[in-house]
Design brief:
2 domains, Fumarylacetoacetate hydrolase, domain 2, 35% strand, 271 residues, alpha+beta, globular, 9-stranded mixed beta sheet
Length: 271
């Protein structure tokens, strides 16, 4: 099953496989359910008209997006190269405890065909294509979407304690275009691709797979929910394995395509 969120004459509504669900349906309410019954209950919801073509970010405004870092070897190498304290990232990569951090509240997330941003005080900004987990109130993985964790490498590279400023700002988190309802067993070998266009021409392309991730998806969710409650579930970005070359930085006017499996998330870039 596939969930999308749309603007309608009745307000914002979710859709299942392209058909509108009742206005009473909310993602956060569905994520309160245990995974054993959630899919069956979702199938029993009545549907109505075809969903509008335009879609919003697939998240309720009050839900939270968290993120994991240094989960791929390529990410570790890039962070070590940019940082003034390179062993910091080697230690994270090898540690038992995963790195997790808060990325954005749902109301700050942008969706497909909406603009992402680069910080005006950053000299080196990059997109980070990521598998994004959707987990329920019991920390069970129930779905996934595509994500772009836009980041300032210059700010984080100056000092790891600047991570919140490098990662958290308006237009730095994009999710979409919808949510594939699935368990973690379906996410072990998803292809991830990043394409960046400038002036109508492709200037970067990179590919990886979730099979290259060092940590398990369950482990990442476990550390996210350790000493934290998520009564309505949440989202977790799982890190990037694709990093553009050091001489590349995002610019206003660029376009970024991120695909995870069959999901394609497209965003223009503004400053």
């Amino acid at each position: 099953m596939y969930l999308t969120r749309h603007p309608t004459s009745n307000g914002t509504q979710w859709a299942r496989d392209g058909e509108l669900l009742p206005p009473s349906f909310t993602l956060s309410g569905w994520l309160e359910l245990p995974s054993a019954s959630a899919s069956d209950i979702l199938r029993r919801y009545p549907t109505g008209d075809d969903a509008p073509e335009s879609a919003l970010a697939p998240i309720d405004p009050h839900l939270e997006v968290w993120a994991s870092g240094v989960t791929y070897l390529r990410s570790r190498d890039a962070r070590m190269a940019e940082s003034t304290v390179s062993d910091f990232y080697q230690r994270i990569y090898e540690a038992e405890r995963a790195e997790v951090f808060f990325k954005a509240p749902g109301w700050r997330v942008v969706g497909n065909d909406e603009p992402i941003r680069v910080r005006k005080d950053s000299t080196w900004s990059v997109p980070e294509p990521e598998l994004v987990l959707v987990f329920n109130s019991r920390l069970e993985i129930v779905g996934y979407c595509t994500g772009n964790d836009v980041s300032s490498r210059s700010i984080e590279g100056d000092n790891p304690l600047y991570l919140p400023q490098a990662k958290c700002y308006d237009g730095s988190c994009s999710l979409g275009p919808g949510i594939v309802v699935a368990g973690s067993a379906d996410m072990g070998n998803l292809a991830i691709q990043l394409r960046i266009f400038r002036g109508g021409s492709e200037v970067f392309r990179g590919e990886t797979s979730t099979s290259s991730m060092k940590r398990t998806l369950e482990d990442l969710v476990k550390y996210t929910g350790m000493e934290l409650t998520f009564p309505n579930g949440g989202f977790l970005m799982t890190g990037t394995g694709i990093v553009p070359p050091d001489e590349f930085s995002l610019q206003a006017g660029d376009h970024v395509d991120v695909s995870v499996g069959d999901l394609l998330l497209r965003n223009g870039v503004r400053s």
